[in-house]
Structures are given as C-alpha cells and as structure tokens.
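Long-time lurker. I teach an intro course on protein structure, and each term I like to show students one example going from raw sequence to a predicted 3D structure in token notation. This year I'd like something fresh instead of my usual example. Would anyone be willing to generate the tokens for the chain below so I can use it in lecture? Attribution to the forum is fine with me.
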Amino acid sequence: MSSKDTKQQILDAAESLFIENGFHTTGVRHITELAGVNTAAINYHFGSKEKLLKAVVARRVNPLNRERLDMLDRELASADQEGRMPDVEALIRALVQPMVAHLAKNDAAGRFHLLAARVATDPDKKLKQIFHTLMETVIVRFSDAFQKSMPQVNPQAVSVRMVFCIGSVLHAIHYISETHQNDCLLSEGRYRPDLDQMTEHLIRFLVRGMEGR
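-- Reply from a regular --
Happy to contribute to a lecture. Here you go:
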C-alpha cells in the first residue's frame, strides 16, 4: 500500500468512527484496526489524534467552503454590477445549499455534518477551535457581506445573528438528514419529508432571523 493510500485509509476509518462514536470515545487502536495499519502510521502522517481529526474535518469542510465562497463572490459581483446591496436570501443560500447538496449524496460526505456538529459544539475548547479555525474565513467574509446587505443594522448585531445562523444550520442539517432518510411522526400521521422543501423552510427561517423580522 502506498503512503497516499495509507493516509486515505486512516482518514476514512477515522471519519467513520468519529461520526459513529464521537472523538473522545474513539481510540487510536480502533482507528488502526479499522484502517488496517499500525499506530506508527498515524503518528507519521498526522502526529496525533487531534491533528487527525483536523485533517478529517478539513477534507470535507474546505471544499464546502470553496463552494460557499464561490457563490458569495458571484452574488457580490452581481450586486456590484447592478448597483444594489447584496441580497440576504442569496447569501443564506450560499451558506446552506453546498452542505445540502453533499447531504443529498447520502454517503460519507453526506453524513459528515454529524461530525461537524459534534466538533463545533464539543465542550473541549481544542476541538471547537478546529472548527472555528477552518470556518474563520467564511465567517468573516459572510459577516462583511451581511453587513453590506443590511447597513442599517449594528455590526455587532450582524455578528451575533451570524453565530445564531451557523448554529441553526448545523442543527437543521442534522434534523434534515434524519427526517430525509426516515419517516416523521406528526399528529396527521407519518410522512417522508422532501429534502428541497425542508431546505426552503430552513432558508426562509434564516432570512427572517438575519433580517431581524
């Protein structure tokens, strides 16, 4: 097995176990057994379990963030050409839709949101920092864009709403994943929610929250 293949095997095994059992419950031995490698391979490629987690998160988050920033740049360019403020809904869609698109694949990439939510909300500050570091550019760029779209809103209020927005997205994506794959039980009976419909509900909710309506 080549060095590249070994690294990929470790990342795949770690991601699967972190999603299933959480970071703290998963031991290095569990990862090496599933990946079919020895402990030295993890130390060689990643240095520690924490750095392995960062690599697992980065390989999923970085492509998502590139898609988000591409959509953001297109909206900002369009707004500039048309002489208008950036559209709040377009900005929200840029945040949400790349993640939903991956979720629809129903594979490891689609299930990654479970791990992202765990890392972002973990009491361990070192784990939270991993998520915040990887999301920093997105948070700053989108906060600036939302400020341009709502110049009448205090910048501090925009930042607070942005934090609530990201938290809502993480929770909602988890919920959407569960209900998209399983029946929901309401007073009217069981039904299988439509992914696109739930995404539109989420976007409308976030738009109103960002606008403070």
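Some talking points for your students: The chain is about 80% helix and 5% strand. Residues 18 and 25 are 8 Å apart (CA to CA).
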